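Following up on my earlier message about 6-O-alpha-D-glucopyranosyl-D-fructose. Here are the inputs again, as you asked, copied directly from the submission form:
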Amino acid sequence: MGSKKLTMESTLGEVYDTPIGHDVLKKVLLQLGAEDILITNPLVSKIPVSMIGKLTGHSMGQGFYETLINLCNSEKKAYKDTKHYYTPKWWKEAVFYQIYPRTFCDSNGDGVGDIQGIIKRLDYLKNLGVDALWLSPIYDSPNDDNGYDIRDYRKIMTEFGTMEDFEELLDKVHEKGMRLIMDLVVNHTSDEHEWFKDAISDKGSKYRDYYFIKENSDKAPNNWKSFFSGPAWGQYGEDELWALHLFSKKQVDLNWENAGLRRDIEDMIRFWLKKGVDGFRMDVINYISKGSLKDGDETIGKMFGFTGIEHYLYGPHLHEYLHELHEEAFAPFDAFSVGETPGVGMEMAKLLTGESREEIDMIFSFDHLETPGHERFDDYKYDLNYYRNYITDWMENYGKDCWMSLFYDNHDNPRMLSKVETDPRKQQAAARLLAVMQFTLRGTPFIFQGDEMGLRNYEFTSMEEITDVESKNKYAELCGSGMSEEKAFKTILSGTREHARVMMPWDDSGISPHDPHRKVAMTQKADLDLTEVYKKLIALRKRYNALRYGEFKVLNKRRDRFTYERYDKNEKFVI
Ligand code: ISL
Ligand code: CA
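Thanks, got it. Here's what our run produced:
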């Protein structure tokens, strides 16, 4: 791959040859609903960058090209895969299970899931074949974003229990030979965190520089947009100072350029690792390095929905900060890390997870969650031919230095099964198909709570049933822009994260008697329970090396077909 400096006159092929150019162009095509054949086509690859607009039928501003070229020049060398085998690691062999504690299991009937509820279900999880648990945040929080707005990193959320409950959970998990990872939310804190309170009220506070705080003025410091609607700047405190919040107004972004902040974060991570936690899932970790606070390019903003994103999606110090975290916090404990990295493509992923880079172990890539040209709030049927192409690309090209995660669902998305197949008569087959791929492809499977019970989307009937801040803000925004309430609600229904946050339908005690959605989930489980299928597939994966570390070869990928081989020296599976 090229190493000369790119300019506006460089060709698309040259851009595509740089790791960032590769990922950005792929993402642009995905967003536009086009195929990447376009770029690999020899004719197209000779076209200069400044012609992309013509090629795609979109008019791009000058800023778009400049940003693209600058990003490409910031990282010209692709990651080189040097290995011929996969280094064995426990987390490559493990099956993970994500728990969203609020709706997993309620042990005391107050309507909120809790830590004792999780303890109650450990035998169930062990039995399923699960090796490791990922808990969505359980820290003290005012719950503007259900715990992703942390008020105190070293305290347990009162509704979920106490530190003793947590230690009991951790002990029991370990006693059963399982592992536990926590959620690490360090791109932002709650605006109720002590650091922020101090920072906003006291000009001389050392914490003022822990955030992006700017003097009061009539205009926000830049045009960046929040992921949860509206501008990414809010005004806080008596002096109405501006502070950056990429997510809700109560989630203020931390300034990672401040070395004191980085030391405090490392210290907090070690606090949990000393307790025996086995690692972390790192929330939006690729957003932590904010390059400059310059205005975002409007074309990029329109295309991706979030103006400003090019300044922090893959910021200038990202690798440096991750390596530092690795050295200071993770490595001494041999702890595991998986980064949540929205917008990161395969080449960037290699640079983040390549073994010799010593940054993070694995990432969650999200490009398979919607088919090209669609976004989460569209109502459409997912075409699995796209997933087949996507996953084949990763299987063939991610390399032996890197390892991927395999998942369809999490707490931020509607259920994949509902997207893939809406005909109830075919859902059983579709669910099995998804499961077979998840446990026989190469990578670490992450089950999201309820996948194994065949849970699907929930037919919410009004906005009153929707509690999620993202959906509520988006609804208000849509209605504010002139959309009818009915249409706005339909849009929310297609994409709301609430689908994944319905109380789990346990069929004995441990269910919230107050939960209005429970009945539906119980019916869904009753007609599509997959726990036995999951058990068998997990057991198979555990038994055969070929299914874990084996090679992958596509046999048939004609339309609506996907046949592949997994094999090693001794074993061979045709799937
Ligand atoms: O980037 C996005 C839109 O393209 C979002 O999907 C965003 O990356 C995602 O919502 C980030 O999720 C994580 O951080 C959020 C939290 O609300 C989510 O629950 C969490 O998984 C803020 O902490
Ligand atoms: Ca409870």
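One observation from looking it over: DSSP finds 22 helices and 18 strands in the chain. Hope that helps, and feel free to reply on this thread.
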